[in-house]
Amino acid sequence: MDLTILDEEYPLTAAQIGFYQEHSYIKLKQVLDADTIGFFNVEISKAVNRLNTENTPLEERNTYGKAFLQLFNLWTQDSIIKQLVFSKRIARIATDLMQVNGVRLYHDQALFKEAGGGITPWHADQHYWPLSSDKTITVWIPLQQTPLEMGPLEFSAKSHTLLSGRELSISDESETKIKNQLKINDFEHVIEPFDVGEVSCHSGWIFHRAGENKTPDIRKVMTVIYMDKDMKLKQPENKGQLNDWNTWCPGAKIGEVIDTPMNPILYEK
Predict the structure, then answer these.
(1) Helix, strand, coil % over all residues of the chain, rounded to 5
(2) What would the pLDDT profile of 165-192 be if each residue is shown by its tens digit?
(3) For the purposes of burial, counting CB atoms within 10 Å of the CB of 248, is it exposed (0-12), middle (13-18) or buried (19 or more)?
(4) Ranges of each domain in the chain
(5) Which residue, 5, 25, 59, 168, shows the most beta carbons closer than 10 Å to its own?
(6) Do 182 and 122 form a contact (C-beta atoms < 8 A)?
(7) 10 Å Cβ neighbour count for 211?
(8) DSSP SS3 for 42
(9) Helices marked H in the chain — which ranges?
(10) CA distance 202 to 225
(11) Residues 6 or more apart in contact with residue 61 via CB below 8 angstroms
(12) Average pLDDT per 10 consecutive residues for the chain, totaling 269 residues
């Protein structure tokens, strides 16, 4: 399989960068071609099947458990998947959108929403992250065409400016309370399907969710989470942030740049 596209430049326009800076998310078409998506669909599916330990029937799980199967840092488990996670093409997109001089890996995760899988409640990712600035970005890479009935990612445009709700973990409570706050503040709710090769990029503080998977097929997504290469570790403010410190950047010290073997620089200008 020819994977040279992973290192080729995907030029962004000034308008696209400006859109991300204003709205805190963007969707980009044809970031990867159909052959590359199909290849990684197979490889990541094999890894998820091999590594998944969730055996509880879907109907017996809580809201979080019904949302998706979640497997982390596949780059450490599979050299083929590592090529996607370490893609200079995608890391440069992250760098340019955030307007920084380079990015480090925070971690990757596969998010497989099973057939009949439930909603992913409204939340902001950075609630869980012990990071000193908002220079973070998640690239959400669907591994197939993702129509509305499959539960694509939804965004509340510009909601990174809303402070209320940041303290909530993913839960039934976050779905209800954040939904109400977003309505009160009249943020635009963006819900659209994804074409093959289309990806989205969103910042750590924007509120987002996903609907149920009403199809008979698994909604397969790979994500890569990047941070500014100069990101420093902050004092954790909740149990989730303490867990993330120990899990995603072990050995990093509070107040210092997160320069660990688990957080390599993936692109630098």
Answers:
(1) 35, 25, 40
(2) 999 889 999 999 999 899 888 999 999 9
(3) buried
(4) 24-248
(5) 25
(6) yes
(7) 19
(8) helix
(9) 14-23, 34-51, 63-67, 79-85, 88-98, 172-184, 239-248
(10) 10
(11) none
(12) 97 98 98 98 97 90 88 97 98 98 98 96 96 98 98 97 90 92 91 98 97 97 98 96 97 98 98
3-state secondary structure of 200: strand
Measured in residues, the chain has a length of 269
Q: What is the C-alpha to C-alpha distance for residues 20 and 10, in angstroms, rounded to an integer? A: 16
pLDDT at 72: 96
Helix axes 88-98, 14-23, angle to 10 degrees: 70
Closest CA to 169 of 243, 73, 238, 68: 238
Contact 6, 83 (CB under 8 A): yes
Give per-residue pLDDT as tens, 43-85.
Answer: 999 999 999 998 899 888 998 888 889 999 999 999 999 999 9
Read off the tokens for 68: 């998706």
pTM higher than the cut 0.90: yes
The Cα–Cα gap between 256 and 233 comes to 6
**pLDDT computed for residue 67 by the predictor:** 85
CATH class of the region 24-248: mainly beta
Give strand ranges (E) for the chain: 25-28, 69-72, 102-113, 120-123, 136-142, 153-156, 189-191, 199-203, 208-210, 219-228, 265-268
Name residues whose C-beta falls within 8 Å of residue 162's C-beta, 6 or more positions apart in sequence: 181, 182, 185, 187, 207
Q: Is residue 219 within 8 Å of residue 168, measured between CB atoms?
A: no
